[in-house]
Design brief:
Blueprint lengths: L11 E4 L1 H8 L3 H7 L3 E5 H13 L3 H14 L1 E3 L3 H17 L5 H13 L2 E3 L13 E2 L2
Parallel strand pairs: 1-2, 1-4, 2-3, 4-5
Helix pairs in contact: 3-4, 5-6
Length: 136
């Protein structure tokens, strides 16, 4: 399910790819917390999951996992507003001399746009201002 228009989502959580993979791996930390929050997934993360499935030895199984996930979560798309946040974040990181992967800038832009907590295990997100981060 893709959402076209949303408001600020203070009590919700946006999951990074590494958290979804931990969920697939049945990580108890993630399983314990994921059911206690309203969960959103950036469209970029879905793309990263599809890429992982395409290059995996278990392509069909992984594709089915992604399809099942898509049926049960809300996917946040890139909007015009997201693009503005992306430009600001990328410039801030460039000025700090702290580049991060492009996809992670987009994920951060969605987190900032919707004032939603980003759940990740990647430390480089801490270089971005005005987003809240949790590590599960």
């Amino acid at each position: 399910m893709v959402v076209s228009k949303l408001t600020k989502m203070g009590g919700s959580h946006l999951l990074d790819t590494n958290i979804i993979i931990a969920f697939y791996d049945r990580d108890p930390k993630v399983l314990n917390r994921i059911t206690r929050h309203k969960i959103y997934i950036p469209s970029i993360v879905i793309g990263e999951l599809w890429f992982g499935a395409e290059k995996s030895a278990n392509k069909l199984s992984n594709q089915k996992q992604i399809e099942a996930l898509i049926d049960h979560v809300t996917i946040l798309p890139i909007t015009e507003e997201t693009s503005k946040h992306y430009g600001t974040i990328k410039n801030e990181l460039k000025q700090k001399g702290k580049p991060i992967p492009e996809n992670d800038i987009w994920i951060s832009a969605i987190a900032r746009e919707f004032s939603i907590v980003l759940v990740t295990r990647d430390q480089h997100f801490s270089n971005i201002s005005d987003i809240r981060i949790e590590t599960w």
